[in-house]
Design goal:
- By secondary structure, this protein is α+β, with helices and mostly antiparallel strands.
- The protein has a single domain (about 15-155), classed as Haem-degrading domain (Beta-Lactamase), CATH 3.30.450.150.
- It contains four helices and six strands; from the N terminus they run E-E-H-E-E-H-H-E-E-H.
- The chain has helices at about 25-40, 70-85, 90, 140-155; strands spanning about 5, 15-20, 50-55, 60-65, 120-125, 125-135.
């Protein structure tokens, strides 16, 4: 049986969707990180990639040589937030502003949640299975790298 992945274009979660979860999560995480690192090198960026499963456990944490130290923590927080809430972190940003529905989110769980772009949720069928976090470049570059990885996986599986 062939695993098919596609990117959902609707928010709150621009994610990988799979009807057949045959690819083990560690294999998927490794492939996502490889695509992100290839894209980052081509753009002369240094980043950290993190994948956290739906239970909040780290599946993969990989820092490119020279990526800033804070990127380790931020990639984890972005991945954790996307996995726990089932939303891309970019979509959370406006909700975390004063008066927003999730204004206090960043202070919950000892600051483990973040409202910075670069975290995306990974979905199998209708169920979130992981969060992918990218950090170390600008927010827009982190978002772009995460989306490029999802598109790369989708292209490989189609």
């Amino acid at each position: 049986m062939r695993t098919m992945f596609a990117i959902a274009n609707s928010n709150p979660c621009d994610s990988i969707h799979s009807k057949d979860p045959a690819m083990p999560l560690l294999e998927l995480a490794d492939r996502l990180a490889s695509i992100i690192e290839t894209q980052a090198q081509a753009r002369r960026l240094l980043v950290t990639t993190c994948v956290i499963d739906a239970h909040g456990n780290i599946v993969l944490l990989r820092r490119m040589d020279g990526a800033i130290l804070i990127s380790l923590e931020m990639a984890q927080r972005k991945a954790y937030t996307a996995a726990a809430i089932g939303m891309d972190t970019e979509a959370i940003t406006p909700l975390d502003q004063p008066g927003g529905a999730l204004h206090t989110l960043s202070s919950v769980a000892g600051g483990r949640y973040v409202a910075l772009g670069g975290g995306v949720c990974v979905v199998s069928g209708d169920r979130p299975i992981a969060g992918l976090g990218v950090s170390g470049a600008s927010t827009q570059e982190d978002i772009s790298l995460a989306r490029a990885a999802l598109a790369g996986i989708s292209a490989e599986k189609s």
